Amino acid sequence: MIHSTLSALLFRWWYYTGGSRDIIGGEFAVLCILVIVFFMFFYYRITKRLERRRMPGGKPIKLVDPLSTAHRSILSEKSDYYNQLSKPDKELYEKRVRFYMTSKMFTAEDGYPVTDEMKVMISAAAAQITFGLPAIANSNYTHILIMPNADMTPRTASPNSIVVPWREFVAGYAHSDDG
Predict the structure, then answer these.
(1) How far apart are CA 175 and CA 146, in angstroms?
(2) Is the whole-model pTM more than 0.90?
(3) Distance (Å, rounded) from C-alpha 46 to C-alpha 67?
(4) Whole-angstrom Cα distance, residue 5 to residue 43?
(5) DSSP code for 62
């Protein structure tokens, strides 16, 4: 889409400036190619920068870090989706869960404790939703705010945060056939 829009703009500029009378030979084609390469270079740089996002602690995120055995046991106990995956898909799913857990900041309001079970289950739900997508999916959301229930109004939610009412999340996650 970017390339077609760019070439349409360049053609209009070429046409309204007199076309081939002002540009001799293949200079217009060279100019078009240079502009397209310029935009492709910056598009590549921006997407690579997004892929190399950093955690709040400043450490680079590695998609190859293994999931701990405690987290793996929470997954196998609570997630029917995880239990139905094949062994290679389980390994990829565990990496996705680990990536999500390390790339997001989990907090709660009013002293509500954030446990590893909460982090694993919320990360597993996000990994399940984005399992067929690139690992960078959901990169705009950096903060997960956990509320005790849906009746509460979040005070510290920002535009790049996801608010999760914990009791409702657990009740919905308990029924794997409910959609």
Answers:
(1) 20
(2) no
(3) 29
(4) 15
(5) -
Residue 100 is encoded by which pair of tokens?
Answer: 């999500």
Nearest of 107, 84, 104 to residue 96 by alpha carbon: 104
Measured distance CA(104)–CA(138) in Å, rounded: 10
Element (H, E) at 106: strand 105-108
With tokens 């829009």, the residue in question is 5
**In whole angstroms, what is the distance from residue 27 CA to residue 147 CA?**
61
29-48, pLDDT tens digit by residue?
677 677 787 777 767 766 66
Q: Are 165 and 147 in contact (CB under 8 A)?
A: yes
Separation between Cα atoms, residue 145 and residue 163, nearest integer Å: 5
The C-alpha atoms of residue 170 and residue 119 are separated, in whole angstroms, by 12
Residue type, 77: E
- Taking only the tens place, the pLDDT of each residue in 7-16 is 666 666 666 6
Rounded CA separation 117/65 (Å): 18
Neighbours of 61 (CB within 10 A): 16
Rounded to the nearest 10 degrees, the angle between the axes of helix 116-129 and helix 87-103 is 120
| Contact in structure between 146 and 174 (CB atoms under 8 Å) | no
- Residue among 91, 166, 179, 158 at smallest CA distance from 131: 91
Under a CB-based contact definition with an 8 Å cutoff, are residues 159 and 142 in contact? no
